Amino acid sequence: MDYQKNIFKNISISIIPFVFLLSIGLIAGDITLHQKVFKTLMIALFDCALLVILLINFLGSKEGLEKQRKYFIYFIAYFVFVFIQFVVALFSKEICYDKEYYIGNYILLIIFSMCFFIFLNKLEDVKIGLLLVNVYVLIVCIWSIVEFINVDFKIANFRPKLSFGNTDYFSGYHIGLLPLAFISAFVWFDRKTKLSKNWFPLVLGIVSILGIIPLYFSQTRAALFGFYIGTFAMFIPSLIIMSERISSKIKVPLAILVVLVFLATPILLLKFPPPIIEKTLGRLVKTMANPEFFLNDRYNGWEGGLRLFRQYPIFGAGLGSVYASSFKMNNLFYIYSDSNSFKHSHCEYVEVLGEAGIFGIIFFIALFGFIVVYLMSIAYSKKYNKDFRYISMALAVGIVSMLIHQLFSLSFRMSVTQTAYFSLLGLGVFLISLRKSMVIDGFTLKKSIFPEFLNKSISFRGKYILLGIMTVFTILGIIGFSMTFRSEYNIRKALGSRSINEARYYFNRAVTVMPGNPYAWTQKYSVDFNYYQQLLKSFQNSQDYFKNVEQEFNVVKTDLDKLNGIIPGYQDVYSKYANLYLATYDYKIRKYSVTSNLSDYKDGIKYLYEANNHLTSSLNMNFLNENNHIIRLLLQNILNIESQYKDYVKDYAMARVYLDLGRGRKVVKEKIKINFTDADKTSVVKENEIYNINISENDIQNITNSTKGIKNISELKTKLDSELKAIFIYE
């Protein structure tokens, strides 16, 4: 154990990037609306701190930087990859939401990744970093257990998200670091000491295994999939192949057997779950019962990115374009999803395809592929130090696990998960740069293919030039990020305000700082509309009051116009417009009753038609919004419009069928067939998991006749439900 003590004596500033990485994961803040923006703030502050530490370190040394120039090409390539997307966004015909934030965030992350590479000097630095990863694992294990159980120590089935803001972001971050925790036991194992005295690696092994608990509790399907593929298709088989104690004849068959066993076990447990599995992993059990629902759910979420790729196949539509495009869903999408929008593609590869086209996806795959392939080639080569091989393999597994997770996730669009990914990339570049010093005596490396000037280390003068360039880019990253931060800071201040005037003051600042922030306009609308509703309730027959109402109406409508301009096609905006016009209709009719001004009455009717049009637009985006169906039918009755009423009744009946049979995600749209026939009786037949539903035109006509003319929403809903229950009998 002497060598371990010596390592601790040599702890240096090299471990600071590890400390910062884990701090970004574990520290939360409420000064911004979203955690991702706060996490980006932390990255910016840590980048500044790292650059200051580098400057101090440089000033204390008269030597150059022992980092070869060629390895910085990787980081330059990533800058180019992101910069091209940003340039495309500047000239794009599509809405590229928050492109300044995205480019700023990427710049700060690449700088952080570079610092990982620059700060680390030897393999022992990484070994100490692995200990910090285990400390993180232990903290999140305890934290997640506390979140998962309630005060009575009964299983609450609450998916822990810790300080990450979202369970998916946490699990995406966690699976990237977990393989490093696993391998720490192997790395810290002293092969010269008796097994009984190797208590420290044993502790590390136990802690790393405990790291599976938070992932288990998260129930994040894509993350667990990535973890299982990464761990049991790469990690364990690699350990078997790398082992010197297992016969070479059985290594491959044994590795294949392990993969099959470990992959089959969770599938069988979820397909035929014991009670404890059903209780703790209900979400995963439901997915196994209906895997097509999950897949169709995700596939429909890809539509926004794929739509842009079809339109802009070479260079894509630009950074941030998929966000706005993802709001333009076809209405059947909502049969699969509880969300009113995906906001991102929930697949990083589709996201890159939409934003950067063929060029971008090739570049993206090449960037991480280079690291993974290189690290695995190190792991499988006997010419290198054993610990070096172990760490290289674990790092590759962590990156692959995160990338598999990204097949069905949006967490790579969130700064906290991105921090883990870019840190692993920086660590990967560092390990690759260590190859020469890790070669065992008797082995040699091939001559470098790079020109001699790229193989040279950074000179004394060059290190200051490098620091200057990194500082300039950090400032540019902060500038790009600052607009979003200031806007979100004011939103948070507004939400914490004690008065309506104070809240509106901060919301106005939020939209002034960043006019294109949809979250600012959404939150501002909520406050403004609530104030407008309160104002309408305090009706007064005075010109000052009427003038005030008109002013507040214009404020709310401006909020919605701005929001609709930022993200056209966002279905929720149409519902908001309808609510505004319905509230204003009531006010106009009431005003007419005291003023007898015919224009007020005409305005009221106009607003009813506007509400009807917006409800129709909303239902075209989200067909399963039951309440909007009922309100639209109510408007037809108020306006005495008969021409479309029967069709709207039919729409409501269809929506009710999907809602009833699809509730609990038991049935997806392909399993429901609705036919409107002239049959005398409505029938519901289940054949081979398909519901065949025959709704007679006569039934629809009867419902139409019985509900026509009802002008009270609760009475209309009750009547509709009773009529439908009378003709539908579901199995």
| Overall pLDDT | 85
Point out poorly predicted stretches: 151-156, 330-341
Query: Number of helical segments?
Result: 30
For the record, the count of structural domains works out to 2
Q: Give the radius of gyration.
A: 30 Å
Main beta sheet: strand number and arrangement? 3 strands, mixed
% residues in beta strands: under 5%
Separation of the first and last Cα atoms: 68 Å
Q: Which structural class do you get from the secondary structure elements?
A: mainly alpha
Number of DSSP strands?
5
Structure description:
- The protein has 731 residues and is mainly alpha-helical.
- It folds into two domains: 2-478, no CATH class; 507-727.
- Helices cover 70% and strands 3% of the residues.
- It has 30 helices and five strands.
- It has helices at residues 2-9, 16-26, 35-59, 72-90, 99-119, 123-148, 167-187, 199-210, 212-218, 221-242, 248-271, 275-280, 282-289, 291-301, 303-311, 321-325, 348-379, 386-405, 415-433, 452-455, 460-495, 500-513, 518-537, 543-566, 571-595, 598-621, 626-639, 645-662, 697-707, 713-727, and strands at 65-68, 457-458, 672-677, 683-687, 690-696.
- Strands 3-5-4 form a three-stranded mixed β-sheet. A two-stranded antiparallel sheet has the order 1-2.
- Helix 24 (543-566) runs antiparallel to helix 25 (571-595) and helix 28 crosses helix 29 (697-707).
- The longest helix is centred in the middle third of the chain and has 36 residues, at 460-495.
- The radius of gyration is 30 Å and the shape is globular.
- The termini are far apart.
- The model is unreliable at 151-156 and 330-341 (pLDDT under 50).
